[in-house]
Amino acid sequence: MNYIDRFHIAAVLAKIFFFIFQFNCFSQKGWKIGIGNNLKNYHFLSSKGLKVDYFKLGAGNSAFISSEKPFLDTSRIVVGTDSKSIYFQNNIMEFKKVFLLFSFVLISNLVFAQQFKLNQGIAITQFNYQNDQGQNIQGLKSGSGLAFGLAFHKASLVDSAKYKLEQTPLAIYLGQNPKVAKLLSLINYDLGLQFTQLNAVGDIQSNAFSYQTDFLGLHGKLGIRIPLPAKFSINLQGIASVNKIVHGNQLLMNRYVDLTEDAQFSQVKIMAGYGAELEKRFSDKSAGFFSYQQTQTLNSNPVGKSTLHFKPTMFSVGIRFLN
After folding, report:
1. d(CA 150, CA 162)
2. d(CA 17, CA 171)
3. For the chain, does the N or the C end have fewer beta carbons within 10 angstroms?
4. How far apart are CA 71 and CA 202, in angstroms?
5. Cα 41 to Cα 60: distance, rounded to the nearest angstrom
6. CB 117 within 8 A of CB 150
7. CATH 2.40.160.20 region(s) of the chain?
8. What is the CATH number of domain 3-32+116-321?
9. Would you state the pLDDT for residue 23?
């Protein structure tokens, strides 16, 4: 599947995402849908019992859809006459105590809960390789892969409603400078985890090759959210991240090379760039967004005098859980 097909899929997913939230279909119960990534390792024994060791760890996409059924049907247990129902009827007070304790812990956490963001999409990556003579290799072409993100989100640096009630030096200053308070209320930031597949393909002198890599990283985003009509907003962001390869293979001359042992890939990659999120608020508890971001590596571990830089462009859809 090329990156154009993946982009079309992402566009369709974005439309489905907004359709689902617009009509509040998440109230429906009984179904689970998931999309992810899996790593596979093949183990093969010959007819003589010899272990073949030329297989490399590979990555692939996975998805599932399943129905969900409660373990206990309480409406039947309350009036049931079978042994299971009688047991629960005789111990109903104990179960109420456990339920109340669980509810107290859950509500206590929700009271102090912060906002979180979850997004998924595709990363279209350009590899920029410069050889030891300072020449850029032109045979490399962009490849596509999956991208996931989970982040803590701070919606504003100051709470405009809260500081008006306080008498701290900062609150007094903001009260005397409403424009500064307004600006700080629009500034937001993210701190989170990300998983990104940075892939590329190419050919030189009729020799085809490909790179398939999985990176795990930490990212931070600082943005300014601009309100728009109809509960829309746009969030303009500056982005920085640190990333480490966790899996990677290169197909070269009909053989696979483990990229986790390659100095140009195994180094921790520092990336920086910019992005934008078009967000739609659906309720007091959730908002959906479509995200675009462009980043590039700032460091490269030179092998000899050659260098390799990554330039991923990411498109994703996501949800922000409000507190």
Report:
1. 28
2. 40
3. N
4. 52
5. 11
6. yes
7. 3-32+116-321
8. 2.40.160.20
9. 45
Complete DSSP assignment for 290-305: EEEEEEEES----BTT
Dihedral (CA of 164, 166, 169, 172) sign: positive
pLDDT of residue 213: 93
Cβ neighbours of residue 64 closer than 8 Å, sequence gap 6 or more: 32, 33, 34
Looking at the DSSP bridge assignments, the partners of residue 246 are none
What's the pLDDT score for residue 231? 92
What is the helix (H) or strand (E) element at residue 145, kind and residue range?
A: strand 140-154
d(CA 160, CA 182): 8
Pull the structure tokens for residue 204: 């030189």
| φ, ψ dihedrals at 165, nearest 5° | -95, -5
For residues 97 and 102, give the distance between their C-alpha atoms in angstroms, rounded to a whole number.
9
Rounded CA-CA distance 121/145 in Å is 9
Answer yes or no: is pLDDT of 242 > 90: yes
| Helix (H/G/I), strand (E/B), else coil: 72 | coil
Residue 168 exposed, middle or buried by CB count within 10 Å (0-12, 13-18, 19+):
exposed
Tokens at 97, concatenated = 């105590």
d(CA 133, CA 144): 29
pLDDT for the residue numbered 33: 57
Q: What is the pTM of this model?
A: 0.66
Q: pLDDT band at 308, cuts 50/70/90?
A: confident
pLDDT at 176: 81
Q: Which residues are CB-contacts of 305 (< 8 A; sequence separation ≥ 6)?
A: 131, 132, 133, 134
